[in-house]
Amino acid sequence: MKNLVKKAAASATAGIIALSTLLTSVPVSAEGNGEITQFMDCFMPMPIIEELTDDCWGARAGLRDQSNGLEDREMDEYCYWDGGIIKDEETGKYYMFASRWNQAGGHWGQNGISGWQGSQAIYAVSDNLYGPYTDMGPIWPDWCDGAGHNVFPFMVSETDPLYEEGYRYAIMISDTGMHGEIANGTIHIAKSLDGPWDLLQNGNSGRLKAVGSSGYYLTNVSITLRDDGKYEAINRNGDKAIADSLEGDWVVQLYGLWWQVEGMPNVNVEDPVIWYSDGLYHVVANKWDTKEAFYLTSEDGVTNWVRHSGIAYTPKENFLEYEDGTENNWAKLERPNIYVEDGTIKAFTFAVIDVEKEQDLGNDSHGSKIIVVPFNGEGLDEFARSDVYVDPMAHRDGIEPIADTTAQSWSNEANLNYGGEPFLQLQRNSAQGIFGEGEKAIDSYDCKIAYIKYDISKYIDKEIEDVYLSIVYQGLQAGVSAENQIEVALAESDWEEGTGSGTAPNANGNVQQNDDEVIWSNQPAIISSADETVVSDAFATADSPIEVKIDVTDMVKSYIEDNPGETVITFALCEMNGNRLHIGSKEGGVSTVPLLDVNYVGQEEEEEKEAAEENISQNSESSATPMIVGIVAAVVVIIVAIIIIIAAKKPKNEKKS
């Protein structure tokens, strides 16, 4: 990765740049659905099956058709969630697989009544793709009291030995509070959509059996059939695994897809749905705190995933409408799933709720249901193949750090090194120091300080005009503050980042390999006083990723003046409100790397001169190539000519008698 990140054509002067305002795309013309500049433009008007009414629960969503999808019309029994659909090709009926719970418990549970954690896995049937669906009851009533949440149905592959045994359908569930780990992550198979459903016999109690260095998280798992007949799964963390058979091992292909795609948010991402259609692998995943989902594609399903322009879906936009133009706006859209027919996506399903989850208290005319929305699969295919996403965060100014890490104090975290992680953490503790630095008093003392080191040798003899730290805020990990700020101090530079050996599965942090690698006990000492620190402008913690620019001009000038000959500088960073924040690190790629933007007198002329010299060098190389080719060709011609002349002068052999 180059050390110098070139300046974008237009640089915002504001301290904070919202990613969502800087998206670009190539418009695609879609018949009957206008221009497609993002995934969300592919949603089509819902047919009116019965009638539109506001004389129903969930009136906040607007006039709506209760016959669409699956719902409890009176909201006096069940809330519904999830909602994948499989068509019975013999009967023509559509089967929806979902979860339900007692609406009296609200979403989170109350008064001794479970909310979603008391979910049962159920199925519903309709003659129409869009509904209405009739609840047929629990899918497996005699197993774990019918428990199931995050219910995800899919087809059994024809290359799976289970197919030869007559099995055609499978369902995976996760995240149920009923029976704990007994039900979590289990796969169930059936020969008919009406059941009976058998728990997978795979030697792992029916749970997906993953093989990988860091295990496999069994929450929010989505599974698709690959074009080679194998299965591919993705979980909430963006970990991807592939299996030849449901009964066999799932080999983890990569961990943390969200961290490996340019421009993709990587904090508070959930609800991924994966599918294969029109020759591409697709993933849509939702960033729950900002209520925005993102669309990714790959040609092989494992490598070279790219993010596409715009938003996949968001309840902040009125994109859900009926054929007469009436719009619906639900408070949340979650657990998306797709219905594919003839190799092309035809419809999308969502679990929707008319208020925020904590406001659904049971017996209050609020709740959740499943909707089915027509989708322009042909338009999406064209968009996916023509769209080129340009990430504004990848075009910020500045030099990259030579090292960055986090010192963490909590419990055994204090003994681990956090170099080499794709993010840095900030969490202030006001008990001591400026940020909470120093020896921790008790094991539960919690503080997280980021350290970032830069090589400034190029600038120590320059007349500096201004210096900015460009930090990419990735999200709020813990805490409730609606706003926050990042505070910066100077620290000693005699430290190593470290990228030691990994620890337990699904844990971050490394085992310290040498005494210079940063852990809490040898954290770089902060050399700024409390009145010498610099604080960023306030930013909304719900908005991420965003660029936070911090003016460190005076800090850097003073450091260079007070430390003649010093060629490196270390900044210590923390937040202001006792929350836990994630910011980008140098391992996070060009979209998240923290940059130091130094501007000095004569810089423009110097850069123009360097560019001109580079251009001359490139031109010289390009012009030299045909010259060399010409010389070689000429030499070959001369050699051939000499051979011909020699052959012509050689005396002919006399005939033998």
TrEMBL record:
It is found in: Secreted. The chain crosses the membrane at residues 627-648. InterPro entries: CBM96, Glyco_hydro_beta-prop_sf. One of its GO terms (cellular component) is extracellular region. Residues 1-30 form the signal peptide. The keyword Secreted applies. Residues 399-590 form the Carbohydrate-binding module family domain. Pfam families: CBM96. Gene3D superfamilies: Glycosyl hydrolase domain, family 43. GO terms for molecular function: hydrolase activity. The keyword Membrane applies. Its main location: secreted. Keywords: Hydrolase, Membrane, Secreted, Signal, Transmembrane, Transmembrane helix. This is Glycoside hydrolase family protein. The lineage of its organism: Bacteria, Bacillati, Bacillota, Clostridia, Eubacteriales.
